[in-house]
Design a protein that fits this description.
Structural class: mainly alpha
Strand order of the largest sheet: 1-2
Radius of gyration: 24 Å
Number of helices: 22
Strand content: under 5%
Bound molecules: heme C
Distance between the termini: 71 Å
Length: about 450
Amino acid sequence: MKKMLLATMIFFVSAAPSHADQIINQAIKDMMRHEKSNVSKPAPTPVVKQPVPNITVDPVAVSIGPLAQQRTFKTLSTQSEACIQCHTAVTPGIVSDWQQSMHAKDNVGCYECHKSPAPSAPGAFEHNGFLIHVVVSPKDCSACHPEETKQFEESRHAVAREFIAGVPGLALTRENTLFSTLGPVITTRGCQACHGTVVKIGKNGQPTPDTWPNQGIGRINPDGSFGSCTTCHTRHRFSIAEARKPEVCANCHIGPDHPQYEIYMESKHGNIYATRGAHWDWNAPPGTWNILKTGDAPVCVTCHMDAGLPDMKTTHNLSANLSWALQAPLTYHYPDWQAKQATMQEVCYHCHSTAWTVNYFKQADATLVVYEDRYYKPVFEMKQKLVSEGKWPGKPFSTPIQFKFFQYWHHEGRRARFGAFMEGPDYELWHGFYELELDKIELMKQMEKMENK
Ligand code: HEC
Ligand code: HEC
Ligand code: HEC
Ligand code: HEC
Ligand code: HEC
Ligand code: HEC
Ligand code: HEC
Ligand code: HEC
């Protein structure tokens, strides 16, 4: 048994970075590439780098098996009863949230989630006679929800941390230049609040104040697992009704660089959600939610998790239906993009005809070609020229033109593409292509001046 657990743990430790490495490599490659694209061409095969096997595995961490032998219990454990007795006075909000959860109904109590297996387990501390930890990670949840955790780990959500600052000890150490420019104080409540911190454990066994609290979607937990389930299932209700609503995504998917929530709300789909959504069956138990019965528009999780469609299997891998990397400076296809697009289109077919759906994707795809040819190429090529001639400032984010160049692709360039793919005309045009048009003129003018200096 112990051997099997050891093997699982080693697999987990080495599997996670290798997957992350694949994604990172693709992203880095894309950022470096200025001359070639695969818009309307087949996707290149990603370079798969071997993970660096220099991770020290704590033998105690290895011995952590499934924390719970059971999913449901007839009665509440005596340990959990003790927690509740105190915590009803200490943190009444937490107890009342928990009482309204599905966990309370099945007697999954405080101790079942917070217990630690050994004093030397990551984050374990002694607490009124109990050995507990405060950071309940996806690995803890996986004891009872292995399927959802596995799918989550396969998604780009789980590796969101690496894109900003890498992970110490793993091969992923590339730090984002804006991240370094702004520094740790600003980014802890900024970038890292959405992407995740590397939670460190201090001397007293509890997480350090510079890394906790944190609920970033790609948080690196003390037990080595990636992510945080509470980003969508807020503790301690762990509600699915809440996770199904677009507002939960708006915690992160908003703002000038990724306004997916705003785009959705201005789309016809979002209009219908806003006007009729109050009557939809948000509390339907898992596996029984059917949006076709009560509502006639998709929400985020319909298109990105196949949720609410009775003939499709829900997934916690939010990357599963994406064919394009629209967030990159130069758009590129993900591996297996045809199959991913086909699944997305299968979602549309529940309410739209083939012609409506396929033509819509053709219209959106066409905007990518224009983005690349008319906006991306001339400006990036000119910038590359200045870099190669030593005329572009060496220090990142030190002059206004560097910010303008960044916003060109990172703000308006993304908005134009997101708007085109998610039915947001105002973002495609006024916050997107219109601004690209104006900024291209200004950038080219300034860069020509630098060239002639
Ligand atoms: C004797 C009373 C008592 C018992 C029993 C008790 N707690 Fe607590 N717990 C507290 C108090 C007091 C705090 C501190 C609250 C504060 O910081 O404001 C606390 C804090 C916590 C924290 C937060 C620690 C942190 O660093 O943020 C967690 C998690 C926790 N308790 C879980 C549990 C669990 C799980 C159990 C049952 C196994 C339990 N408690 C039993 C009184 C108790
Ligand atoms: C289904 C698992 C689960 C159960 C059951 C559970 N917790 Fe938690 N608890 C969590 C998670 C997850 C977090 C940390 C949130 C995060 O990951 O960002 C947490 C955090 C906490 C914290 C620190 C958060 C804060 O705001 O201070 C306390 C205290 C706590 N739990 C107490 C309790 C008590 C008391 C109970 C029982 C009434 C309980 N928990 C039951 C999963 C659980
Ligand atoms: C000891 C087992 C156990 C652990 C640990 C556990 N859960 Fe659960 N969870 C359950 C059971 C039992 C249910 C009730 C439904 C079921 O049977 O699947 C449930 C239901 C849920 C639901 C569905 C709620 C609904 O409204 O239908 C969510 C979401 C959930 N858990 C999330 C989590 C997360 C996130 C964690 C880790 C922070 C976690 N659980 C840890 C046993 C557990
Ligand atoms: C409000 C939440 C939030 C904040 C704050 C935030 N991000 Fe993000 N970031 C996101 C979301 C959401 C995405 C996904 C965008 C998409 O794919 O359309 C993202 C995407 C990214 C990507 C692209 C990853 C990829 O897959 O190619 C990078 C790099 C990144 N962010 C870095 C940063 C840095 C550095 C900071 C701080 C200077 C930061 N982010 C601040 C939410 C945030
Ligand atoms: C991006 C948001 C999001 C994140 C992150 C997330 N969930 Fe969910 N989860 C959902 C949604 C939406 C549903 C409802 C699916 C449906 O209606 O069929 C759900 C449903 C569930 C259920 C009910 C059974 C099922 O699969 O439908 C469980 C259990 C669950 N999640 C556990 C987890 C665990 C464990 C994690 C962390 C590893 C997690 N979730 C992270 C959005 C999320
Ligand atoms: C706590 C912040 C947070 C929340 C909440 C969140 N996301 Fe994300 N999401 C991110 C970040 C950060 C990224 C970028 C991750 C990366 O590229 O590694 C991302 C990426 C994505 C992607 C792109 C994945 C890919 O492969 O490029 C999709 C789709 C997505 N999120 C959908 C959702 C949906 C739908 C919800 C709500 C149900 C949601 N997210 C909730 C932070 C969040
Ligand atoms: C009608 C279906 C639909 C709905 C509803 C929807 N999306 Fe999307 N989303 C798409 C499509 C289509 C794409 C582009 C897919 C591709 O890459 O081929 C996309 C792309 C994305 C991306 C990836 C952008 C990138 O960087 O490549 C994110 C993140 C995202 N959506 C988040 C959300 C969020 C958050 C919501 C709700 C507020 C939402 N979506 C609602 C269909 C939808
Ligand atoms: C659950 C049903 C449902 C699903 C699934 C769905 N839609 Fe829709 N969609 C609608 C309804 C209803 C309207 C409003 C039609 C009207 O205006 O009369 C609509 C409107 C539209 C419009 C017209 C608005 C505009 O901006 O042009 C487009 C385009 C569209 N959907 C594309 C898609 C795509 C692409 C998908 C899949 C990624 C999809 N839809 C999935 C129900 C759905």
